[in-house]
Specification:
It is a single chain. The protein has 283 residues and is an alpha/beta fold. The chain has a single domain, classed as 3-Layer(aba) Sandwich (Rossmann fold). Helices cover 29% and strands 23% of the residues. It is built from seven helices and 14 strands. Strands 3, 4, 5, 6, 7, 12, 13 and 14 form an eight-stranded mixed sheet that branches. It has a two-stranded antiparallel sheet with strand order 1-2. Strands 8-9 form a two-stranded antiparallel ribbon. The chain is globular. Bound molecules: S-adenosylmethionine. The site of S-adenosylmethionine has 21 residues, from β4.
C-alpha cells in the first residue's frame, strides 16, 4: 500500500508537469520562400552532406534541414510575439548561433545588421550554407564566448540573442556581464533551468556576518554538471534556476524583465532590458 501510494504520487506529479508543456502543441508558422533557391534535389543533397543538424531551417522548395519542429522554432514564435513591428533596423548579436536560425529570422524580420558567433566550425559551415541560400547579409564569426575579448567585437548591439547557450558556459556570470556591456537595449535568454518545483531546497548558511545560520533556501541555485549527466553532453556546465538567471542578469546590469516563459518543465525564456523602453515589448 505504501509503495503503491508513493508510486501513484510520483505518477501524478509527472502528469502535472506534462500538462506544463504547451509549446509542444503550437503549430509553426508557414515559411516564406527564399528567392531563386537551388532545385529541390540539390537542396536535399546539401542537407544530407552534413552528418548532423541541430536546427530546423527552411531552405525553400519544401526542404528543411530537419524534418521535425524543434524547441528553437517555438522559442522564435515566443520572441516574435514581443516584436509587433519586427526588429526595426536594429543590430543583433546571436550568441551560439549554430546553423544561424535566429540570424536568418532577424534579417527576414527587419534587422539592419546581424552578427552570429559560435565556436564550432561545423556549425558555422552550416550557417554559411543556409545564409547563402537565403542570400542574406549576415556576418558569422568563430568565437569562444567563454574566452571573449570584448574589444574584438568592435561594436555594440541593440539586441543580444542568447538562446540555448548559458548552460554551455564555464563562466556564465562573467559572460553575461560582457553581454551587458555589448548591449544597448535587450538580451533574450533561453536556457535549461532547474525545475521550479517547490520542494527543491538547499540548506546553506545565510545572514549577517557573525550571525549567519544554516537556513533552508528554495531559490537562487546553480547546479554544476561535471561530465555527461545532462543529455550525455560533456559541453554542459551549469544549470541555474529561474531566480539565479534573473539574479545574474541583474548583477550584469539589466534592470527590467519580461515574465519568464516556460517550454516544458526545465526550459525558460526571459527578456531583460537596460531601459524601460525596448524594441521588445516585455510588459
Ligand atoms: C544548444 S545549441 C543552441 C543553438 C541556438 N542558439 C539555439 O537556440 O537554437 C548551443 C550552441 O552554442 C555553441 N556554443 C557552445 N559553447 C560555446 C562557446 N563557449 N562559445 C561559442 N559558442 C558556443 C554550440 O556550438 C552550439 O552551436
Amino acid at each position: 500500500m505504501g509503495l503503491f501510494h508513493t508510486l501513484s504520487n510520483v505518477f501524478k506529479r509527472r502528469t502535472i508537469w506534462r500538462q506544463h508543456e504547451p509549446w509542444q502543441s503550437i503549430s509553426p508558422e508557414p515559411e516564406i520562400e527564399p528567392s531563386n533557391p537551388p532545385d529541390r534535389e540539390s537542396l536535399i543533397a546539401l542537407v544530407n552532406s552534413f552528418p548532423y543538424w541541430y536546427q530546423r531551417i527552411y531552405l525553400g522548395q519544401g526542404v528543411y534541414t530537419l524534418p521535425v519542429v524543434q524547441l528553437h522554432n517555438y522559442v522564435w514564435q515566443t520572441i516574435k510575439t514581443m516584436l509587433p513591428d519586427g526588429f526595426k533596423g536594429a543590430s543583433i548579436l546571436d550568441v551560439g548561433t549554430n546553423a544561424g536560425y535566429f540570424c536568418i529570422q532577424a534579417k527576414l524580420n527587419g534587422a539592419a545588421q546581424v552578427v552570429g558567433v559560435d565556436f564550432e566550425d561545423r556549425y558555422l559551415k552550416q550557417a554559411e550554407t543556409c545564409r547563402s541560400i537565403w542570400k542574406l547579409d549576415i556576418d558569422y564569426r568563430q568565437t569562444d564566448i567563454d574566452q571573449l575579448q570584448l574589444h574584438t567585437m568592435g561594436q555594440r548591439f541593440d539586441l543580444v540573442i542568447f538562446t540555448g547557450i548559458l548552460y554551455h558556459l564555464k563562466n556564465p556570470l562573467g559572460v553575461l556581464e560582457q553581454m551587458a556591456s555589448l548591449c544597448n537595449d535587450a538580451i533574450v535568454v533561453e536556457t535549461e533551468v532547474i525545475s521550479p518545483r517547490h520542494r527543491n531546497v538547499l540548506h546553506v548558511r545565510q545572514g549577517p556576518l557573525g550571525r549567519s545560520v544554516v537556513t533552508p533556501s528554495h531559490t537562487g541555485f546553480m547546479k554544476f554538471i561535471e561530465k555527461y549527466e545532462l543529455n550525455g553532453d560533456g559541453s554542459n556546465w551549469w544549470v541555474p534556476d529561474e531566480e539565479c538567471v534573473l539574479g545574474m542578469l541583474r548583477t550584469a546590469g539589466f534592470k527590467y524583465f519580461s515574465q519568464p516563459h516556460y517550454f516544458g518543465e526545465t526550459r525558460m525564456l526571459v527578456v531583460a532590458t537596460q531601459q524601460p523602453q525596448s524594441i521588445l515589448q516585455i510588459a
